[in-house]
Amino acid sequence: MQAKDSNPPDGGYGWVVVVSAFMVMGLTAAVLKTFGLFFVEIQQHFDELASTTSWITSVTIAIFHLGAPVASSLCVRYTHRAVVITGGLLAFSGMALGFLGLNMVWMYATTGFLQGLGISFSWTPAISIVSHYFSKKRALANAIASAGECAFAFTFGPFFQWLISQYGWKGALLIIGGIQLNICVCGVLMRPLASSCLLQAGHSETETPLGNGASRIEKEDKSPITHKTFNWMLVRRPEFVLYAIFGLLAAMSFFVPPLFLVPLSYSLGIDESWTASLLSILAMVDFAGRLLCGWYANLHVTKTVHLLTMTITLISTSLMLLPLANNYLSLAIFTGFYGFFFGTTVAVHITVLADVVGMPDFDSALGLFMLIRSTGGFVGPPLAGLIVDMAGDYRAGFYMAGATLVLSAGFLVTLDQLQQRKERGSQTNTKPEKSMLPYSSLHLLKLQ
């Protein structure tokens, strides 16, 4: 199993999987990212505070993360394909039932819980199977797949705005749910890696005895991208814990800007049509950031954890500057900076996780990472909403997000120091063994 894990196809049908994952990212994360367009509509419909309305997104984000270990475990037991198809059906159900809009609790249960579970069951296996299909080009493949989020968000911004104006926010939810059924089609295309490995192994099996060939096929049927058990013991590894804390703090910040960008623009007196274009700008520069960073990471010039630390520092700086905007042009410029650095961050953070734990434990690590990170996603938007209500200004939410990201960067620095210390320790332990042979040989020569 480890041999196969260390030699994935790194191309071929893997690119079909990347395109499928690209679509899944767009139909899940992009929908969540542009949900801010519904924020004001739902808030006015139910006549609720910003903090109360923000719980819809908070529940979605929390379930998205909490469902990740369940999704990973189901991938271990069944296949990534089956879990993605299930996720598509759940996402559709969440939006279709949200169309009824009975009350705020109903919205929490439908567009919050069901939609979050659908996103989790679609996003988690999609990004996981891409990492298994690629090794040398993993950073680039992950960047291309994740770019589906911003590619779709680029068009979803004005498209959702048009849907709301034509059919109301309830009708828009129903239509979006129907579009999300395409996740099931993408799931069908995510062929288990064992299928391709069996085809590759067929040539070598012709030269082996029948009994050995049969046993090899049985091993391949277990699929090199799955494991017998979900590894919960990763929580005992300091490197993983440090990275998970980083993810928790980052999740508190990542979902705040898209949620409050639209209300902030309204508070500045910017027209609705121009406001929708801000989300398109955000998606466009996000897309460029992901591809550029993925390409650069694929060159292996800079250590991935160093690259991630740099991008987190830059994104926090841009969030601190964004509230200084006082008109559309300045807001668009600062939004562009934030979107670009956000894209570079998303392009490499999954690759860093794979580097930290190794591919044999990646499925378990991804599930646990999302689970731990869920606390940040659950607390972040309501906390920012509370701060906004207290300050009476949407700018306060952006300051909170930037400060939290600065804190998260500190854990990346600590992780890097720990890894370097372990590397130096392993090098020190091997040096005496290498130097003893020349010394002993020279000593024997002297004795002779």
TrEMBL record:
Keywords: Membrane, Transmembrane, Transmembrane helix
Name of the gene this protein is made from: Slc16a7_2
Domain of life assignment: Eukaryota
GO terms for cellular component: membrane
Name under which the protein is recorded: MOT2 protein
Principal location listed in the UniProt entry: membrane
Residues annotated as transmembrane: 12-35, 55-76, 83-106, 112-133, 140-160, 172-190, 240-262, 274-293, 305-325, 331-353, 365-384, 396-415
Membrane-related topology note: Multi-pass membrane protein
Subcellular location as annotated: Membrane
PANTHER family attached to this UniProt entry: MAJOR FACILITATOR SUPERFAMILY (MFS) PROFILE DOMAIN-CONTAINING PROTEIN, MONOCARBOXYLATE TRANSPORTER
Family: Belongs to the ATG22 family.
GO molecular function: monocarboxylic acid transmembrane transporter activity
Domain Major facilitator superfamily (MFS) profile stretches: 14-420
